[in-house]
Amino acid sequence: MTEVYYGPDFELMQNQDPEIASVILSELERQRNGLQLIASENFTSPAVLAALGSTLSNKYAEGYPGKRYYGGCEEVDKVEVIGIERAKKLFDAEHANLQPHSGASANVAVYQAFTKPGDTVLAMSLPHGGHLTHGSKVNFSGKWFNVVSYGVRSDNELIDYDELRDLAIAHKPRMICSGATAYPRLIDFKKIREICDEVGSIMWVDAAHFIGLVAGKAIPSPVPYADVVSFTTHKVLRGPRGGMILSKAQHAAAVDKAVFPGMQGGPIMSAVAGKAIALAECATTSYKNYAKKVVENCQALSAGLEAEGMRAVSGGTDTHLALIDIRSTGITGKEADERCGASGITLNKNAIPYDPQTPAVTSGIRVGSAATTTQGMGIAEMKIISSLIARAIKEGDKAEKAAQIRTEVKELVHNFPVYPEK
Ligand code: DSN
Q1: DSSP letter at 352?
Q2: CA 361 – ligand 1 centroid, Å
Q3: Per-residue confidence (pLDDT) for residue 2, from 0 to 100
Q4: CA of 224 relative to ligand 1 center, distance in Å
Q5: How many degrees, rounded to 5, is the angle at CA 221 between CA 354 and CA 249?
Q6: Nearest CA owner, ligand 1 atom 5
Q7: Rounded Cα distance, 94 and 107, in Å
Q8: Counting C-beta atoms within 10 Å of the first and last residue's C-beta, which end of the chain has fewer, N or C?
Q9: Residue 64: strand, helix, or coil
Q10: What is the structure's pLDDT at 5?
Q11: Is residue 354 annotated as part of the catalytic site, yes or no?
Q12: Is residue 421 flagged as an active site residue?
């Protein structure tokens, strides 16, 4: 990591609003002093942070480059055009839209571009690793669409492609969604394309979790197969918080119209600039090496936790995340999350497939290697982290034990400083 963006603007904020400035500094210290293992988080670069804090934030730019509803867009037009071209090149995509404010809003746009309310959509169930926007009853997707869910097999915890095909044939969905938030394995996009072709469905891939690995060529890309690919830009991809959509050229107009004016007003141009910067970073050899290391580290973390007596769902991982069944410890996911938190280890409780516990309690934890790999950690550190997690789960309810683990966590992370001062 290079140094954090600590420009004169931050000093100004400290003078003008010490209350908020002190919270921002405390969060920086939290990120520096703990282990960040949430699979959907990362440390973005100082250049991206600088773009987010830039004057581009002031500009309204409803519309698209060259077709805006406001004057004065000549500079932000350049940023968006550069970003679009970088995205198309990096992912070998025919069309890119950088405007969605988040992954969930990108998904709203996908529904709007390809479906009408009431249409049938086939997607992975949330308890098996899907996402709220893949048809959860508490989300717009489950309220406005007839979402049929597929899941993973009980014997090997891999996507049940036979079930997926049977459901597709039975329900003839308008759109089939693949992609998940807690599935550690590669998805067979070729097979899903064949099923989509067989039943005449749009193929939508929500690649939020793994698109950074695709960008770094560490895993196969869904782009050649899918009609549309939506994702967030802040996970392994290491960009600013936000969303993006890639599509085939034939869907470009529908996607753009669905994003604006269909779903959003003005884009957040500072975030669009941050996305453009991250896309350029992803095209470097150093990022490719990073993406490969993220996977190797996650495999080491998953194996380390298994060596500590826990079980990796599906037997391991091919990606940046591992889902761990911790029932052998006698502790729930909720308790493990709390005990790890008290010990300076940030991760999240997560349902495992066929979980006997409720979603608020769960039998599992989800861990990811994106942030620690950005810090420069490697396989040796993943082994240490596995043992720290195991100790936190077993003993992190006792204040003195949690404090001891927290000290060891601090010693470890201080060898891999995050955003060191100039
Ligand atoms: N909240 C994200 C995650 O943690 O996986 C998905 O949106």
Answers
A1: P
A2: 17
A3: 44
A4: 25
A5: 115
A6: 181
A7: 19
A8: C
A9: strand
A10: 53
A11: no
A12: no
Report the DSSP beta bridge partners of residue 350.
364
Say if CB 4 and CB 421 are below 8 A apart.
yes
Q: Write down the residue that tokens 């996009």 correspond to.
A: 189
Q: For the chain, what is the radius of gyration of the CA atoms?
A: 21
Distance 294 CA to ligand 1 centre (A): 18
pTM of the model: 0.97
Helix (H) or strand (E) holding 323: strand 321-325
Long-range contacts, stretch 254-259, CB < 8 angstroms, 24+ apart: 254/113, 254/114, 255/95, 255/97, 255/109, 255/110, 255/113, 255/228, 256/64, 256/97, 257/113, 258/109, 258/110, 258/112, 258/113, 259/97, 259/99, 259/100, 259/106, 259/109
Cβ within 8 Å of residue 6, ≥6 positions away: 421, 422
**Cα Dmax for the chain:** 63
What is the helix, strand, coil percentage profile of the chain, to 5?
50, 15, 35
Q: Which residues of the chain have pLDDT under 50?
A: 2-3
First-to-last CA distance in the chain?
Answer: 12
pLDDT digits 0-9 by tens, 7-54: 557 788 888 999 999 999 999 999 999 999 999 999 999 999 999 999
Q: CA angle, corner 98, sides to 80 and 53, nearest 5? A: 70
Nearest CA to ligand 1 atom 6: 181
235 is annotated as an active-site residue = yes
pLDDT of residue 273: 98
Q: Kindly state if the Cβ of 129 falls inside 6 Å of ligand 1.
A: no
> E-strand spans in 9-118?
35-36, 63-64, 67-68, 95-97
Six token digits for residue 343:
């010990």
**For ligand 1, atom 3, which residue shows the shortest CA distance?**
40
206 catalytic, yes or no?
yes
Closest atom of ligand 1 relative to the 181 alpha carbon: 5
Ligand 1 centroid, distance to 382 Cα (angstroms): 22
Distance between Cα 49 and ligand 1 center (Å): 21
Amino acid (1-letter code) at residue 283: A
Give the number of the atom of ligand 1 that is nearest the alpha carbon of residue 103: 7
Is the Cβ–Cβ distance between 419 and 1 less than 8 Å? yes
Which residues have a Cβ under 8 Å from the Cβ of 19 and sit 6 or more positions away?
none
Q: Nearest to residue 381, comparing CAs of 320, 290, 298, 318?
A: 298
- Ligand 1 proximity of 40 Cβ (cutoff 6 Å): yes
Regarding the beta carbon of 181 and ligand 1, being less than 6 Å apart is answered yes
**Catalytic residue status for 241:** yes
Which pair of structure tokens corresponds to residue 47?
Answer: 């250049």
